[in-house]
Amino acid sequence: MLKIGVLGAGHLGKIHLRLLNESTKYQLIGFYDVNPEYAQKVQTEFGYSYYSDYQQLLEEVDVIDIVTPTLSHFEMAKKAIEKGKHVFLEKPITNTVAEANQLITLAKKHKVLGQVGHVERFNPAFRAAISKIENPMFIETHRLAEFNPRGTDVPVVLDLMIHDIDAILSVVKSEVKQVNASGVSVISDTPDIANARIQFENGCVANLTASRISLKNMRKSRFFQKDAYISVDFLEKQIEVVKMKDAPENPGDFDMVLQNAEGVKKQIYFDNPDVGSNNAILDELETFADAIEHKTRPIVNLEDGTKALKVAMQVIDAFGK
């Protein structure tokens, strides 16, 4: 079992602590939090070992799980990597692209692996959809959340939209050509609502909308490609795949057939795959353990996290242009 420590015991940090404590692939050594009084309460309530000095915790683990505010990611990850520790970083990977690139260089130098917590990659609905998504040419995403003070220290792009940016980059095998965006600050100092249009070199266009002041929660993505439409509901963990094929000469009474202006007939049919059940956070942590053990590429490696951050920054830079 890999020995692991957690930096940060806030809302998400406590979830990580609980799951790592239950995991069969990790031995939870302890945690560090910048607030000693709060950390003592967490230790008393849950029994996890609290380290008042995270440098000491680093000495006793193989892997460090960084679930602290983004501003501290780089320094904490840098220290861990320089000590030869594998690092799991919550998204976004770092505060700047330059910092992320430095971590990639350091990880290669010290021969350690890193993974970024883009948890939607492990959503069972998205996992079921992956094999159905082939060269999408138009993508539309909506990620809406009810207001929560947590996360308002960063633009909604880094808080919410970056999930969809990463998912899109994982299925569109092309470089970003152009980014247009608009954002509105309603209750925070940074934009709470944002819309982005990302154009890729291969002609694919992605239209992304994110809001953290919605009256309801929504996390949906739709992928359009030749002869197919795939809808993924990340919140409800559901998927719908609608496909088209050449219509039979003698369609059945219940067959859905469309005919275009040239007289070409296509039959519409559903090809919905089974959606499994999982704990996405536990999966992302445990697949990282597998990558470390087998010396394979993490599913969301440091390069992936950096690409997502780079595009997110392009979106933010496009505001007001």
TrEMBL record:
Domain GFO/IDH/MocA-like oxidoreductase: 156-216
Molecular-function GO terms, alphabetical: nucleotide binding
Positions of the Gfo/Idh/MocA-like oxidoreductase N-terminal domain: 2-118
InterPro entries: Gfo/Idh/MocA-like_OxRdtase_N (IPR000683), Gfo/Idh/MocA_Oxidoreductases (IPR051450), GFO_IDH_MocA-like_dom (IPR055170), NAD(P)-bd_dom_sf (IPR036291)
Name of the protein: Oxidoreductase
